[in-house]
Amino acid sequence: MQTGAALFLVFIVLQRLSELMIARINTRRLMAQGAYEVGAGHYPAMVLMHSTWILCLVVFGHDSAIAWGWLAAFIVLQALRIWILAALGRRWTTRIIILPQPLVKRGPFRYLRHPNYMLVVAEVIVAPMVLGLVWVAVIFTVLNAAMLYVRFTAEERALSPHRG
């Protein structure tokens, strides 16, 4: 196993696991405040898709050399991830949770409606490219596009009454 690839993969796995824990805590808190979930039916498929993506990275990329330019792009994406998470704070979750309050309009949400989805699109491409896995980037970009179509449609429909 290449040390660089191993460190990169450990980072991705630990990041995603920690995000699932944060999302679970935030979801419970939001639901206790009167929030409700929409689009729950597609959530298991989304989790399966992302888990399979990570599994492909680990299985097929563990002995890959790091593509340093792609790693630099990935690091930039992580700065965007931090900005998004900071803007949403306790409202960030992996599910579509609707809280009957005004939408977040700070941070990247001043400029884009769904910066987190743009980030995920980029990560699904960039992370495999760090490991030279072009085919993983292509396959999961297509799968992610289909998933985001379903998710984006459900979220936009649910959020439309809350847009000012």
From TrEMBL:
One of its GO terms (biological process) is methylation. InterPro entries: ICMT_MeTrfase. This is Methyltransferase. The chain crosses the membrane at residues 42-60, 67-86, 117-150. The keyword Lipoprotein does not apply. The keyword Membrane applies. Gene3D superfamilies: 1.20.120.1630. Keywords: Membrane, Methyltransferase, Transferase, Transmembrane, Transmembrane helix. It is found in: Membrane. Pfam families: ICMT. It is a multi-pass membrane protein. Its main location: membrane. GO terms for cellular component: membrane. GO terms for molecular function: protein C-terminal S-isoprenylcysteine carboxyl O-methyltransferase activity.
